[in-house]
Amino acid sequence: KTVYSGLLRVRTSPWVKLSESSPLPHLQEDPSFDNLWHIPRCTTDRFYTLDFDFGAVPKFYEEEDEEGDVGVAVVQICYAFTEVVEGRSHRKMQVYTCRCSASSYSSDVVQSL
Q: What pTM did the predictor assign?
């Protein structure tokens, strides 16, 4: 299946940034908005890999949140696209939000996913 007019938006906690080394082929960066890319056309079996750089958690964020977690990093990815089914186009959107606890150990981060 092929989808059209895709928009990929990535939002993160202030100390988490999309890595400069993230390979984003076939994506056109939006000239007006940060962390927004245009995907003119792609098939549903295509995937993209995003790498993130984690900075130091500011003191303000070291307090516990409502779930008792300290220094939780949040990454939200939103993908909006147009799907054509039986000659009719439908605009759709998918949102994925991931909360990862800060840790010096990669195994702790993987377990929080």
A: 0.67
Q: Which residue has 């928009």 as its token pair?
A: 7
As a three-state string, the secondary structure of the chain is CEEEEEEEEEEECCCEEECCCCCCCCCEECCCCCCEEEEEEEECCCCCCCCEEECCCCHHHHCECCCCCECEEEEEEEEEEEEEECCEEEEEEEEEEEEEECCCCHHHHHHCC
* Residue in 80, 83, 82, 76 with CA at minimum distance from that of residue 99: 76
How far does CA 85 lie from the centroid of its chain?
Answer: 27
- The per-residue pLDDT for 37 is 83
